[in-house]
Amino acid sequence: MNRYINDVPNAPKAIGPYSQAVLTEELAFLSGQIPINPETGKLVGDGIEEQTQQVLKNISALLAHLNLNFVNVVKTTIFLTDLGNFQIVNKIYEQALGSSRPARSTIQVAGLPMGAKVEIEMLASRK
User: Does residue 66 have a pLDDT over 90?
Assistant: First the structure.
């Protein structure tokens, strides 16, 4: 049976009718994270660097709550409002994930919630 995860400390609350994560027996599906400061509920900074760092910090908090980390991640999807930021995001992503190299897609989109420049979702193995 699926388990819906909400109200994770140090991670922003869902801004719509969805869960921060959903657990199955073998997988953890993490909802897309935008650069929301969990303490204020507001978007951080205007720059892609600060926004990407906050997104990865939010994801790290979700993973930690589930007793997982970036090593458990098997698939990442990155949404950018400007693919011109790809190299900047890629460098910050590589620093955060260390030696972990999950499968990944990066997609340019017309817009993201709250005017964010980046959103990242991940799928992690629980086994």
Answer: yes
Report in angstroms the alpha-carbon separations of 24 from 39, 57, 99, 124. 28, 23, 26, 10
Query: pLDDT value at position 1?
Result: 83
The widest CA-to-CA distance across the chain, in whole angstroms, is 41
Rg (CA), the chain: 14
Taking residue 75's Cβ as centre, other Cβ atoms within 10 Å add up to 15
- Residue 75: both structure tokens together: 């698939």
pLDDT for the residue numbered 17: 95
Sign of CA dihedral 104, 100, 97, 14: positive
Pick among 2.60.40.1120, 3.40.1690.10, 3.90.1150.10, 3.30.1330.40: CATH of 3-125? 3.30.1330.40
Task: Indicate the domain borders of the chain.
Answer: 3-125
Closest CA to 86 of 70, 112, 105: 105
Structure tokens at 15: 């801004």
